[in-house]
Design a protein that fits this description.
Elements (H helix, E strand, L loop, with lengths): L1 E7 L9 H12 L2 E7 L2 H10 L6 E2 L2 E2 L3 H25 L4 E4 L7 E5 L2 H4 L3 E6 L1 H9 L3 E4 L2 E3 L5 E3 L2 H12 L3 E6 L5 E2 L2 E2 L2 E2 L1 H10 L6 H13 L4 E6 L5 E2 L2 E2 L2 E3 L8
Parallel strand pairs: 1-2, 1-11, 2-8, 5-8, 11-15, 14-18
Antiparallel strand pairs: 3-4, 6-7, 9-10, 12-13, 15-18, 16-17
Helix pairs in contact: 2-3, 6-8
The structure holds adenosine-5'-diphosphate (ADP) and N-acetyl-L-glutamyl 5-phosphate (X2W).
N-acetyl-L-glutamyl 5-phosphate binds next to helix 2 and strand 4.
Subcellular location: Cytoplasm
Enzyme class: transferase
GO biological process, one term: L-arginine biosynthetic process via ornithine
Length: 257
């Protein structure tokens, strides 16, 4: 079995198309097992707004006070996770939802507590638990919430969480599913990108906002020897005629070594 980690952005969960699920099923029939990690940024923002709290981001990461963390967990575990699991199940894809912090599956540490509050990065992943679920033919669906060794919950950017899970599992592929076809330049899809090109696009502002943690994680995953790393759209079919449609990250030479 080949392992594929799929990150589903909060921007797309509610808009995932039937064609997207057809692509998932096609890949399953070709021997891929899948772990999903999802975001939920727009849902979190909407609930913060209802609570009269203004979302604050620094370099794409949400400043997370104790009050914000409660809403983050409520929306990720109670809404986004439920919604993705339900959609997978209704397309006959067996799935089980888990909060990343359950059973100390995703162990994390603070990035910069004084500046960002309870925002973390993942240090360790309990791959045994994930593999047990995969062996049963079920797709684990994880929130990106992690927990410190001493038991504090941390809010982790979902792109970064997916990258950590892919590395820990030694996945053959990591896909970032979002609301655009891939990385765009002047409206056109870039079918492949090197690290140098990506960094240049960030510097010139062609890649901005939520696309920054996505491409940065994609490059770090590629460096960790995961052969296939892509950004694809959840609005349409992303796998056709044995080929993936989107932006593929490649080493400078153009091929993965
Ligand atoms: N060069 C780019 N190409 C495509 N999208 C980009 C680019 N730079 C920034 N973006 C923005 O990034 C968004 C995807 O990131 P984000 O909204 O955080 O999605 P997700 O919830 O899937 O993580 C796109 O909808 C687009 O507005
Ligand atoms: C630390 C941090 O920023 N965490 C993110 C977690 C959710 C997420 O990443 O959702 P998307 O994939 O939809 O952006 C947040 O609070 O929005």
């Amino acid at each position: 079995m080949k392992t594929l980690v799929i990150k589903c952005g909060g921007s797309i969960i509610d808009e995932l198309s039937d064609a997207f699920f057809e692509s998932i099923k096609e890949l399953q029939s070709r021997g891929w097992q899948m772990v999903f990690v999802h975001g939920g940024g727009p849902d979190i923002n909407a609930m913060l707004e209802q609570s009269n709290i203004t979302p604050i981001f620094e370099n794409g990461l949400r400043k997370t006070t104790t009050e914000v963390m409660e809403i983050v967990e409520l929306m990720l575990a109670g809404k986004s996770n439920r919604s993705l699991v339900h959609k997978l199940e209704s397309h006959d894809i067996k799935a089980i939802g888990l909060n990343g912090s359950d059973g100390k599956m995703l162990i994390g540490s603070y990035i910069n507590e004084s500046a960002l509050g309870a925002v973390g990065e993942i240090e360790q992943v309990d791959t045994d638990l994930l593999e047990m679920i995969l062996q049963k033919g079920i797709c684990p669906v994880l929130t990106p919430i992690s927990i410190t060794e001493s038991g504090q919950k941390l809010n982790v950017n979902a792109d970064m969480a997916a990258g950590a899970v892919a590395k820990a599992l030694g996945a053959q592929m990591c896909l970032f599913v979002t609301d655009v076809k891939g990385v765009l330049k002047e409206g056109s899809l870039l079918s492949q990108l090197t690290a140098t090109e990506t960094k240049e696009m960030i510097k010139e502002g062609t890649i901005y906002g939520g696309m920054i943690p996505k491409v940065t994680t994609a490059l770090s995953v590629l460096e960790k020897s995961i052969p296939e790393v892509m950004i694809v759209s959840g609005k349409s079919c992303f796998y056709e005629n044995n080929d993936f449609i989107g932006t593929k990250f490649v080493t400078q030479e153009g091929v993965y070594q």
